[in-house]
Amino acid sequence: MVCTILVLTFGLMFNFPAKAERLKDLAGIQGVRQNQLMGYGLVVGLDGSGDQTTQTPFTVQSIISMMQQMGVTIPVGTSLQLKNVAAVMVTTSLPPFARPGQTLDITVSSMGNAKSLKGGTLLMTPLKGADNQIYAMAQGNILVGGVGASANGSQTQVNHLSVGKISGGATVERAVPSPIGHGNTIQLELNTADFSTASRVVEAINNKFGAETAAAVDGRVIQVKAPMVNDQRVAFLGALESIEVTPAQTAAKVILNARTGSIVMNQSVSLETCAVAHGNLSVVINTDNAVSQPNPLSNGQTAGTANSNISITKEGGKLLMLNAGASLADVVKALNSIGATPQDLLAILQAMKSSGALRAELEII
């Protein structure tokens, strides 16, 4: 059975010019970030689908500790068989500039052997950050998706029931200090480090706000002078994020998924002359340099052209392709047409990369 190879080569087939992007899509402001929160809690009110307490002792310990805090003493040696309780982990992200009283959506995930969290209620759970400080409190009724029935009720579809969500289930109790309001400068951080893009961002900012407003620290960080007054700084940052910058062309890269055979490549990928033999496949790429000589007295210039011949041979047949300019898209398309498997393609691309014929970074996922 021959596997189907999915090829995405839009960047190679259509060489579109780079488009200008807003600065907010290319970079972020240092200090403006989310912070992950996590907490351990109990879900009650389950319809017999909770943890089996004989196999999850931490659930029993949590219940005993909670009851003691509420003034209820459970005799030593008491065997608790509570099928309506489940131990869970609660996670969320604290957005930048969050203030006490703001609500957050939370995700509740079973950490024991509960069959379902459907219909359960999360008891008050403190959510802590990486510094072990409490930043929010969570509580509420859990909504579990993935359960559906047909109109006549004859068919039921059950998916993942051990994870649920609570919309607005957490309340922020503590704000995270932000360094953005301190000093007379801010730091822009590019999403992808690139010296060319960094220099273009600096040029665009200085053209809009004046010379020496921005200066590149390195290939990722750009230092920008900003007003000291808060409302003026906010207005300045709003205008700053709206600046359009044309990013530099990215480095040549080929991404291959060895499990599905999917290939993604950008327009910077190129090939050099090479020959590869793999099993019953043989790939030969060579370039024929031709010279075009103008007619006498035509004021023309002598020009050179490079026609690349891609020849792929398989036992039992031969496929020949002639194209102007060797591209990896042509090689992959030819390999697909003769039924090459993802493993064949992976081996051929690795051989091309090792020999230096593939002028791109090869990433296998």
From TrEMBL:
GO CC annotations on file: bacterial-type flagellum basal body, distal rod, P ring; outer membrane-bounded periplasmic space
One Gene Ontology MF term: structural molecule activity
Keywords carried by this UniProt record: Bacterial flagellum, Cell projection, Cilium, Flagellum, Signal
One Pfam family recorded for the sequence: FlgI
Main subcellular location of this protein, as a coarse class: other
A Gene Ontology biological process term: bacterial-type flagellum-dependent cell motility
Signal peptide coordinates: 1-20
Localization of this protein: Bacterial flagellum basal body
InterPro entries on file: Flag_FlgI (IPR001782)
The UniProt record lists the keyword Protein transport: no
Subunit details: The basal body constitutes a major portion of the flagellar organelle and consists of four rings (L,P,S, and M) mounted on a central rod.
Assigned protein family: Belongs to the FlgI family.
Protein purpose: Assembles around the rod to form the L-ring and probably protects the motor/basal body from shearing forces during rotation.
Xref: PANTHER family: FLAGELLAR P-RING PERIPLASMIC PROTEIN FLGI (PTHR30381), FLAGELLAR P-RING PROTEIN (PTHR30381:SF0)
Listed name of the protein: Flagellar P-ring protein
Natural source organism: Undibacterium baiyunense
Gene giving rise to this polypeptide: flgI
